[in-house]
Amino acid sequence: MFRSRLVWFSLGFSVSAAAISQFVWKDLLVDRYALSSDMKNKFDALEQRVQNLESVAYQNSNPSGGWE
Fold first, then answer.
1. CA quadruple 36, 37, 43, 47: dihedral positive or negative?
2. DSSP 1-68
3. Measured in whole angstroms, how far is the alpha carbon of residue 29 from the centre of its chain?
4. Alpha carbon 6 to chain centroid distance?
5. The pLDDT of residue 62
6. CA angle, 17 then 21 then 27, to 5°
7. pTM for this one?
8. Residue 68 contacts by C-beta under 8 Å, 6 or more apart in sequence?
9. Residues whose CB is less than 8 angstroms from the CB of residue 62 and which lie 6 or more positions away in sequence, other chains included
10. 16-19-24 Cα angle (round to 5)
11. CA–CA separation, 43 and 30 (whole Å)
12. pLDDT tens, residue by residue, 19-42
C-alpha cells in the first residue's frame, strides 16, 4: 500500500512538474521572441533615421567644393 501511494505521488509530481516547466519554457520563448522583434524594429527605425540625416547632409553640402 505504501509503495502504490509512493508511485502515484511520484507520477503526479512528475506530471505536474513537466506541465509547469513547459509553461515556463513557452513563456520564456515568447518573451525572447518579443524582445528580439522589438530590438529589430528599433534598430531598423534608427537606421532609417540615420539614412535620412545622411541624405539631408549630402543635399546641403556643396558638391563642387569651390566658393561661389
1. positive
2. -HHHHHHHHHHHHHHHHHHHHHHHHHHHHHHHHHHHHHHHHHHHHHHHHHHHHHHHHHHHS-TT-S--
3. 9
4. 42
5. 57
6. 150
7. 0.53
8. 62
9. 68
10. 125
11. 20
12. 999 999 999 899 888 989 999 999
Backbone dihedral region for residue 61 (phi beyond 0: left; psi -120 to 50: alpha; all else: beta): beta
pLDDT (tens digit per residue) in 43-52: 999 999 999 9
Per-residue cell: 11: 507520477
Whose grid coordinates read 506530471? 15
